[in-house]
Design a protein that fits this description.
- The protein has 310 residues and is an all-alpha fold.
- It contains 15 helices and no strands.
- α2 runs antiparallel to α3 (48-64), α3 (48-64) runs antiparallel to α4 (68-81) and α12 (245-258) runs antiparallel to α13 (263-275).
- The relative contact order is 0.07.
Length: 310
């Protein structure tokens, strides 16, 4: 008889799920996160925060696959375990928005902004929901909102300390699906200026066609300011040029956490998916882009190209 294979731990299953998520295999990622949840729930020493992260990760996979109902359910579970998990709030907001539950989406975007006022995706979402609710409910739309929870100062301080701790750890794998933006403290003015100068050096190298050198400059820039969306999209362009398509996808993922409707991030991720022959993911990104810019000629052309090959 062959030796019995040792079953994987919840942490190994989570890691495998993260890898599948990064490469756009959302169905497989969902399956692995489900196995990880079952394994962790059986563990008597389980940490509620670990379980909250697994539910949030699976919610992200459901969201990517367009299964918004299941995404909301998993975010609810995650937020029961870890009340002010920013990523769960943002994912539930995005799913609620897609389901046209604009009041709930507005509440979640506003709650996320109480925790971190620098989340561009939450600012954008709040603006979109304000417009949608004004159209549907009229000028008195705020009166129909569910209550917006107040985030206690103690919670904000705890999350800020945790963020600082996470940033200093030399872990190569982000805790949740490669999206670390909301965990980083806001950079100082000095850091922002330094990051901008390094980004501009990178831009100058791109114009000369020196993409590998430009990547190094963007790497340095992001160390000073990891919240600058254009640095991620610029580095993604360089990764495309040197055929590092998975790295390009990761950068576009980061950019889209910061700005969920970023056209360059959607287009460049679509290009990377096309090169990796993931037609479905490519088409999904192009369709998302065309919702933002319906007449984007580059996206329309690439969509035509990809659909001809199907």
């Amino acid at each position: 008889m062959p030796p019995k294979q040792k079953s994987k731990s919840w942490a190994e299953l989570k890691q495998a799920g993260n890898e599948c998520f990064k490469t756009g295999q959302y169905g497989e990622a969902t399956n692995l996160y489900s196995q990880a949840i079952k394994a962790l729930e059986k563990n008597s020493k389980r940490n509620p925060e670990d379980l909250a992260i697994l539910y949030s990760n699976r919610a992200a996979s459901y969201l990517k696959d367009g299964n918004c109902g299941e995404c909301v359910k998993d975010c609810n579970m995650s937020l029961e375990l870890s009340q002010f998990n920013v990523k769960s709030l943002l994912r539930r907001a995005a799913a609620s928005e897609a389901l046209e539950r604009y009041r709930q989406a507005y509440v979640d975007y506003k709650t996320a902004l109480q925790i971190d006022c620098n989340i561009a995706a939450a600012h954008d979402g709040t603006n979109r929901m304000t417009k949608a609710l004004t159209e549907t409910d009229g000028p008195s739309w705020r009166e129909k909102l569910p209550p917006i929870p107040t985030v206690p100062l103690s919670v904000k301080e705890k999350l800020a300390q945790k963020s600082a701790g996470n940033v200093s750890q030399p872990s190569p794998t982000p805790q949740q699906n490669g999206t670390t933006q909301t965990k980083k403290p806001a950079p100082s003015d000095k850091e922002i200026k330094k990051a901008q100068a390094l980004k501009e050096e990178g831009n100058a190298l791109v114009k000369k066609g020196e993409h590998k050198k430009a990547i190094e400059k963007y790497n340095q820039s992001l160390k000073h300011n990891p919240t600058e969306v254009t640095t991620y999209t610029n580095r993604a362009l360089c990764y495309l040029s040197v055929k590092q398509y998975r790295d390009a996808i990761r950068d576009c993922d980061e950019a889209l956490v910061i700005d969920s409707n970023n056209v360059k991030a959607l287009y460049r991720r679509a290009q990377a998916h096309k090169e990796l022959k993931d037609v479905r993911a490519c088409v999904d990104d192009l369709n998302s882009l065309l919702k933002v810019e319906p007449k984007n000629s580059a996206a329309l052309k690439l969509l035509q190209e990809v659909q001809k090959k199907k």
